Amino acid sequence: MTSILDVENLKTYFKTEYGLVKAVDGVSFHINQGEIIGLVGESGCGKSVSILSVMQLIQKPGEIVDGKIIFDGQDLRKYRSNGPEMRAIRGSKMTMIFQEPMTSLNPVLTICRQVTESLELHLDMDRQAARERAIELLKMVGVPDAASRVDDYPHQFSGGMRQRVMIAMALSCNPMIIFADEPTTAVDVTTQAQLLELMKDLVTRLNTSLVIVTHNLGVVARYAQRIYVMYAGRIIESGLSEDIFGHPHHPYTIGLLHSVPRLGEKHGSRKLIPIDGMPPDLINMPPTCAFLPRCTYKVERCQKEPWPALRAVGDQHYISCYVDIREK
Amino acid sequence: MEAKQNNLMVEVKNLKMYFPITRGLLRRHVADVKAVDDISFEIKKHETLGLVGESGCGKTTTGRCILRLYNPTSGNIFFAGNDISTIPERKVKPLRAQMGAIFQDPFGSLNPRQTAGSIVGDPLKVHNMATGSELENRVTELFRIVGLDPSMRDRVPHEFSGGQRQRIGVARALACSPSLVICDEPISALDVSIQAQIINLLEELQERLGLTYLFIAHDLAVVQHISDRVAVMYLGRIMELTTSEELYENPLHPYTRALLSAIPIPDPIAEKTRMRIVLKGEVPSPVNPPPGCHFHPRCSMAIADCSAARPPLRDIGNGHFVACIRV
Which of A158, A273, A278 lies closest to B161 in CB terms? Predict the structure, then answer.
């Protein structure tokens, strides 16, 4: 498999009046062609900032301070964020589906106008051709009666339908990678199931890579082939989906899996094991492992040495932890 | 009958809550949003009844009717044996001292300019239950009960984390020592690693204080974990009501089955073999719901009779209620 995106040691910091927020602090990952990747973590762990950095959508006071972003053989950090090269990639080869379809669609433009925008811009289509392509795209994502609904405004669509429009927009220029940032957080579970099945079918058919950014472990378990777990601006565990869920090694991943109730567990049969404490303040980060104050497996070495680098614990399975935990 | 009455905390009978839609200068009544459309259920003492459903199914409205935050369109609500759906407004206040409420958003449901201590003590002042040092002592006690340091009582909400804020919400709900607590999506705004802390806290408090919960949420896995019995709502009606175990092991209503199969499980191996029912279409509008069974346009088992009449919620044995003519 060929890797189409390689991110190495990415650091994105935000200068705030309270201090330097290290939102992303040395993150490396790669994405192969046609792969579905899960990027998992709680709010504030840096998962959204990581992909916004890749797309060069970080605004002041944020800044990418270090790292390499190699996409399709080009070093994206050489390009200005709103320069012609980056604009040719963004929205065309690399697209994004945002969390809130309510706020990410423009309420005063018709669906047609919004879907055709990138077609006209990137593929040089004329109005009529773009419109036809837009209708085709809407049909593909399952918008009923697409030919007449294309002239509707976003408020005439339900939440699930709006998210389908977002998917259509993301697919419009045959992208190589789609980043989906919490694509189903704002919708109901049955709609979530519809949307996830749809996205999976489409990317498999078009051989596009899909990165699902989410806090919901269940969502990625079914669809992602590989998973990256983030905590406090770093990747703390990565590996194949089966390994992450079947044999998690990092105390945080283990804790996360134990803390969510599973469907079908008998009422009262198991007490949930919460992770004590709360996620750290990204301004005053300790030099040691950021999970240390909440960790139940900590050893003496953890207190003394800096944040552990990722090390292999299996084929394609890496953790950033000094402790060897045998689960199950 | 008497013994049964004593065993019940809440009894809801044929509850309807319609919100009128008016139009024009004369506010002509043109239609109704049938948020809750004739539902009946009971909450036993010391049990947790879960209420699940997708957004707009009427679960929050049901909770608010029990709190008498809405005056129901019709139907009766019995709380500890008394009909509270028709009592006059002035008699509602003492009633609310016996009911606590925990809301979804710990950011929006706490006054940002009030200190934590005064938020927690407010219900006691409103109901004239404590003043002066007695009030102070009770607030300290409440802070301890929910696992907050009483020395933080002079801080304002933004100085607390999401989980701590929800603990303040819990302490406020418990201030007047209620017997019933309505938990409306109490954890859905919290981070995953924090959710379990609040679920465990609610479970501990129930055991210690003998509380009865109505637990409203959209996440079936969470509801099932915390509830003794679960009611599944769809478009203003209860589709199925049974114990949590039975609901998972033997779901009968096609909607319950679809809902269960739509919930992702964090286990890729189990996920690959699991059957998934993906529903067609979307939830219809509660202004103009489909005739007969509200679910029939999306149901794979629907027959012609399904659109003819509303299926009654019937007991098929062992307290398993289901509203479907096909089972």
Answer: A278
Provide the chain B residues 99-128 that lie in CB contact (below 8 A) with chain A. Answer: none
Model confidence pLDDT, tens digit, residues B173-204 = 999 999 999 999 999 888 888 899 999 999 99
3-state secondary structure of B253: coil
**b/e code A63-77 from CB counts within 10 Å (16+ = b):** ebeebebbbeeeebe
Shortest alpha-carbon distance between residue B222 and chain A (Å) = 6
Residue of A143, A200, A201, A272 to mutate, testing the B interface (most B Cβ within 10 Å of its Cβ): A272
d(CA A212, CA A227): 9
Structure tokens at B83: 């009909």
Does residue B19 surpass a pLDDT of 60?
Answer: yes
Suggest the residue from A40, A158, A201, A222 to mutate for an interface test with chain B (most B CBs closer than 10 A). A222
Q: List the single residue in A with minimal CA-CA distance to B276.
A: A193
* CB B93, CB B127: distance < 8 Å: yes
Which residues in chain A have Cβ-Cβ distances shorter than 8 Å to B276? 193, 197
What is the rounded CA–CA span in Å between residue B259 and residue B262?
5
Ramachandran angles phi, psi of A242, nearest 5°: -60, -40
Contacts by residues B3-6 (CB-CB < 8 Å, ≥ 24 positions apart) = B5/B81, B6/B81
pLDDT tens digits in sequence order for chain A, 328 residues long = 689 999 999 999 999 988 899 999 999 999 999 999 999 998 889 999 999 999 999 988 999 999 999 999 999 999 998 899 999 999 999 999 988 777 889 999 999 999 999 999 999 999 999 999 999 999 999 998 999 999 999 999 988 899 999 999 999 999 999 999 988 887 888 888 899 999 999 999 999 999 999 988 888 988 999 999 999 999 999 999 999 999 999 999 999 988 888 887 766 667 888 888 888 888 888 889 999 999 999 999 999 999 999 999 999 999 999 998 865 4
* Structural contact between residues A228 and A39, judged by C-beta atoms closer than 8 angstroms: yes
Q: What integer pLDDT is reported at residue B1 of this predicted model?
A: 44
Interface of A with B (CB under 8 A): 42-43, 158, 160-161, 188-194, 197, 215-219, 221-222, 241-242, 245-246, 255-257, 259-267, 271-276, 278-279
Shortest Cα distance from A170 to chain B (angstroms)? 22
Whole-number Å distance between alpha carbons of B241 and A159: 28
Q: Which of B279, B286, B282 is nearest to B302 (CA)?
A: B279
Paired with A71 in beta bridges are: A5, A74
DSSP alpha helix (H) spans, chain B: 2-7, 59-66, 92-96, 116-126, 132-145, 162-174, 192-209, 220-226, 244-249, 254-262, 268-273
Which of 238-267 (B) contact A at CB < 8 A?
A: 243-245, 248-249, 258-267
Task: Mark yes or no for CB contact A189/B263 under 8 Å.
Answer: yes
Nearest Cβ partner of B259 from A190, A260, A278?
A190
> Could you tell me how many helices (H) and strands (E) chain A has, helices first?
12, 12
Strand partners, A69: A7
- Nearest chain A residue to B225 by CA distance is A267
Residue A19: both structure tokens together: 């201090």
Q: Which residue of A has its CA nearest to B54?
A: A188
> pTM of the entire structure?
0.87
- The residue among A58, A74, A87 whose CA lies nearest residue A6 is A74
